[in-house]
Specification:
503 residues, 2 domains, two-stranded antiparallel ribbon, 62% helix, transmembrane, SLC26A/SulP_fam
Length: 503
């Protein structure tokens, strides 16, 4: 016993934390799988791989990986478009790309992605997830697109009011959300039970005790659910759409995992995340999930924070949580068939709500309205268009905003009434500021000599250089001294005055 303690000094803390993470992960793994349109067991498979395979690898010691609500919308669309066999190919390719990016040391570059884009992406996913799961909670079929999901809610509400079964199903889903919200206030040992697990257990017990007519999880069996992609599935790689889906999976899963790692690092004082190694760990896990035909994985902040708060000290806790998931899937798979689907929908509605940064958006609007606008536009674009294009729109806006802010220039005109008009240009003169610069310069009188001082310019791009040269050549009227351009505190020699020189 003493030998085991010396080798694993934190075994007791990690063992206790692993049980907590297992209880948090179990309903989420099943719920994400059902919402993604795949067998419930595949969610457990991804959780098992995330715990045992990714958990054993270096990178982030306390971060926990598994199927994520943030990828639910993307997975559902991929399965709906290309079929379940193609999911394994997509996840396998995602894993291999992540391994390659980690080997090329690109992990830290994901930290350069605008936080507003990532939060907007998660908010958009949350909106679509909530809308879709409201239909599932009522036992109704949800429309395909995000916009149709939102616009169809009033009609769905009318259908629910006219159906006793739909009302009963919705009541189970609403009750699940209510229990999750209130459970954290439970005193004593009961409060230590994860709210999602308590909500599912209560919903299951009530539906069984009172014979509530609700749909339950369909069970296939662990080994029947695992369907490795066949040779035919790889033929889809010739499709541009499938390749675009792979890129979307890779970028979103990697960004979410590495942003989660940064958040988890702030929760503990242990070893910091090694981002390139963590990206390779995620890649290894997704590669295995792809071979098994399971869901994609990311690091998940809910499970990770539960791991830290439960007192975990090493990676042993996340590995053990994968072992408990494996034992449950192997020994108690029939228990899944008792879980009501509206209860799982309620869990995902709650998860989707937490993806939307309501408080953060208010603070962002007060201090950084440009960033708040990027967040909102990204979220709306995901709802209106789709996930991949919505993220691209957000990234494009972020780049344009950064370029605009980097193009800060100041144009000052000093006219003392006699002698040349002095024009001072400073800062970064780029094409983004060119219209304002030219408007000011072209409004100056043409019958007066001008001196354009560029000594304060840090950067002058080609567009501004050309425009200023053309302005200087055409500005003066015949008989007026040409525009003089200076690079320092003294005017340039006369022979260098006519052409604009930026050297």
């Amino acid at each position: 016993m003493s030998t085991a303690v010396s080798k694993f000094p934190y075994l007791r803390q990690d063992f206790a934390a692993s049980l907590v993470v297992f209880l948090v992960a179990l309903p989420l793994c099943v719920g994400v799988a059902v919402a993604s349109g795949v067998p419930a067991e595949l969610g457990l498979v991804t959780g098992i791989v995330g715990g045992i395979v990714t958990g054993l690898m270096p990178g982030s010691s306390l971060q926990v990986s598994g199927p994520a609500a943030g990828l639910t919308v993307l997975v559902f669309a991929a399965v709906d478009t290309y079929g379940l066999p193609a999911l394994g190919v997509i996840v396998l390719a995602t894993g291999l790309l992540q391994l390659a990016m980690g080997a090329l040391r690109l992990g830290r570059w994901f930290r350069a992605i605008s936080l507003s884009v990532v939060e907007g992406m998660l908010a958009g996913i949350g909106l679509v997830l909530i809308a879709g799961q409201l239909y599932a909670a009522a036992g109704l079929e949800a429309p395909a697109s995000g916009v149709d999901k939102l616009l169809g809610l009033p009609g769905a509400a009318v259908d629910v009011v006219g159906s006793t079964e739909a009302l009963a199903s919705l009541a189970v889903g609403a009750g699940t959300v209510l229990v999750m919200v209130l459970w954290r206030r439970m005193p004593g040992p009961a409060g230590a039970v994860p709210g999602a697990l308590a909500a599912v257990l209560l919903a299951t017990a009530i539906t069984l005790a009172f014979g509530v007519p609700v749909a339950t999880v369909e069970v296939q069996g662990l080994f029947d659910a695992i369907q490795p992609p066949g040779a035919d599935a790889f033929g889809g790689l010739a499709s541009i759409g499938l390749l675009g889906t792979i890129v979307a999976f890779t970028l979103i899963a990697s960004a979410e995992s590495l942003f989660s790692a940064a958040a988890v690092d702030r929760l503990h004082d242990g070893p910091r995340t090694q981002y390139n190694k963590e990206l390779m760990a995620q890649g290894a896990g997704n590669t295995v999930c792809g071979v098994l035909g399971a869901l994609p994985m990311t690091a998940v902040i809910v499970r990770s924070s539960a791991n830290v708060q439960a007192g975990a000290r090493t990676k042993a806790s996340r590995v053990l949580h994968g072992v408990w998931l494996l034992l449950f899937a192997a020994l108690l798979p029939s228990a899944l068939a008792l879980i009501p689907l509206p209860a799982l929908a309620g869990i995902l509605v709650h998860a989707g709500w937490k993806l939307i940064p309501f408080r953060g958006l208010v603070g962002l609007w007060r201090g950084h309205r440009g960033e708040a606008l990027i967040l909102v536009v990204t979220a709306v674009s995901i709802v209106v268009v789709n996930m991949f294009e919505g993220v691209l729109i957000g990234l494009a806006l972020s780049i344009v905003k950064t370029a605009w802010e980097a193009s800060q220039s100041k144009l000052e005109v000093i006219d003392k009434g006699a002698g040349p008009i002095q024009v001072y240009l400073s800062g970064n003169a780029t094409f983004l500021r060119l219209p304002k610069i030219l408007d000011t310069l072209e409004a100056l009188p043409q019958d007066r000599p001008l001196v354009l001082d560029l000594s304060g310019v840090h950067h002058l791009d080609h567009a501004c250089h050309t425009a200023l040269t053309n302005w200087a050549e055409r500005h003066s009227t015949p008989g007026t001294e040409p525009v003089r351009v200076t690079q320092g505190t003294t005017p340039a020699p006369q022979e260098e005055d006519a052409p604009l020189r930026t050297g």
